[in-house]
Amino acid sequence: xxEGKGQGPTTRDRRALAHQIPxxxxxxxxxPTHPKSNLSSGEAGAPGFLRSKDxxxxxxLNQLLYEGNAKEVERLVREALADGxxxxxxxxxxxxxxMSVVGEDFKYNILYVPxxxxxxxxxxxxxxxxxPVLVASAAENPPRGTLVIGTVxxxxxxxxxxxxxxxxxxxxFKVIDLGVDQTAEQFIDAARLHxxxxxxxxxxxxxxxxxxxxxxxxxxxxxDLASIKLAVGxxxxxxxxxxxxxADGYGPDAxxxxxxxxxxxxxx
Amino acid sequence: xxxxxxPPATRAEVESVLRCAAPRPVPLFxxxxxxxxxxxxxxxxxxxxxxxxxxxxxxxxxxxxxxADGLVVGVDVYNLxxxxxxxxxxxxxxxxxxxxxxxxxxxxxxxGDDLSCARLPNPxxxxxxxxxxEAARRVRAHVGDDVWLRGAVSGxxxxxxxxxxxxxxxxxxLDHPEWVRAVLDYAxxxxxxxxxxxxxxGAELIVFDSQASPELLSPPMxxxxxxxxxxxxxxxxxxxxxxxxxxxxxxxTTEIAGLQIRTGxxxxxxxxxGDFDEWSAACRxxxxxxxxxxSPRLIETAMPDEIxxxxxxxxxxxxGMPGFIMGTAVVPFGTPxxxxxxxxxxxxxx
Lengths: 268, 350
Hints:
Largest sheet of chain A: 5 strands, parallel
Number of helices of chain A: 10
CATH architecture of the largest domain in chain A: Orthogonal Bundle
Number of strands of chain A: 7
Structural class of chain A: alpha/beta
Strand order of the largest sheet of chain A: 4-3-5-6-7
Strand order of the largest sheet of chain B: 1-8-7-6
Strand content of chain A: 5-15%
Shape of chain A: globular
CATH superfamily of the largest domain in chain A: Methionine synthase domain
Distance between the termini of chain B: 15 Å
Structural class of chain B: alpha/beta
Oligomer: heterodimer
CATH class of chain B: Alpha Beta
Strand content of chain B: 5-15%
Helix content of chain A: 40-55%
Number of domains of chain B: 1
Helix content of chain B: 40-55%
Order of helices and strands of chain B: HEHHEHHEHHHEHEHEHEHHEH
Distance between the termini of chain A: 29 Å
Radius of gyration of chain A: 19 Å
């Protein structure tokens, strides 16, 4: 991620802002290194999920997800469903909204990889509760899009790619993670098989990033794949390189990548 | 752009820079050449990383072509220690110039394992450590004692990631901090075994720990987990008689400049994305040498004149700073030598 993590306020600015926000929730991970979020407050000590039938406490759920408290996230998601909240509401306002704050704070160096991973783990726990209901109502709640993603041939470094997967899943995408060291043919086969909207390619090494162009050139030989958006990212990649090789988009970091994906599917 | 054929700095000149004596009129030039070593002999990273003969030839060819002010033994530097204790490394055959690596899942330590009696490597026998040790010995014999020759070792956090896997280790930092300290201690003990063999072979050391960059790990976590064990490693190296120990963490590490200084390592890195002004102020105050890197894409793709101009500006920023070193990020395989020599020329023209 040598391009930096976004063009917003500096880390110092953001930290100063974050420190001005008072502590507000009684549930914290037992670690001195986990920062407080700038999420809005739930009601301290609220006994259940609903403060009233009209006012579900998604802020509390967001905060628990932010802190990576998987057990409590699972409990509140179950309570929300038991209280009759619509599954798409729980997903969007409880989990996706919480994960989007995680992404935003990661972008501005308020959170780092360990905290993002622990939040993503909590998100997955909540998603697992929702999954049977989501599957049953798949027609009403389709994924925002399908992302096929992997590191390119010769590149075995997957930290960044995995973060993108987690955040894309957290944003409502169906994610097909091909893993590492993927050839152009493997990207193309998976894109066809899963009817991808977006193909994401990741590289950590300057020696492997040129292979992104090989993949893009191969996609361009297949008219049936023309509607698929091809996105690139990884430490040595920058916007200029992405434009040079004909990519549709470039993500300097995981949260920005997901914003780009949302832009692709919203424009479609 | 003219080629530069002047000999490298002597060991005494290097020491003078590393120990922050008066600024050197011509900054040291230390490009980061690892997989690119293979290119100098028309080979591949996988091939030279498995053969002491080829690695030696590649390093001597690099020395002849670039004549930088130091040499490093190592190609896929983050794999060696992990491989020596059982991690499987993927190599590429034929003319594939991909860099060997450890595929996700090929790790040998699980979170919670008791590591108090875990196996340590024998550097003269295990994995490809013997390849590197033998290459160090041969290169030292060829170039003599006056060239700064260093054996590359992993830093504790990067090695721990190779041993455990990135996600598992990052999660353990929050879930099992005591165990993370134990695995970092194990990593340190592995590194020390490899380092001892390098020292016996006549090389010094250089520590790489880019997985501990604040682009991944927060500064408080660096301070809590990584700094103490790195300081122990540096203290151990000093006890072996090693006065100069570079610590190389890539990416924008400005936020942990002060913490790196506290490790005791005396030659630190401000990568091309780092804030040079903050870094240089911190290093001046602490009496640490500082290497400034140029972007690998610039080095790989720009014309020599353009590279020279960028390098000249960076050298200008370091002018007057004791301990300033001009460097590059990892040089991509196949980068024309003229591009590297353009940086060296900018140092000469300083």
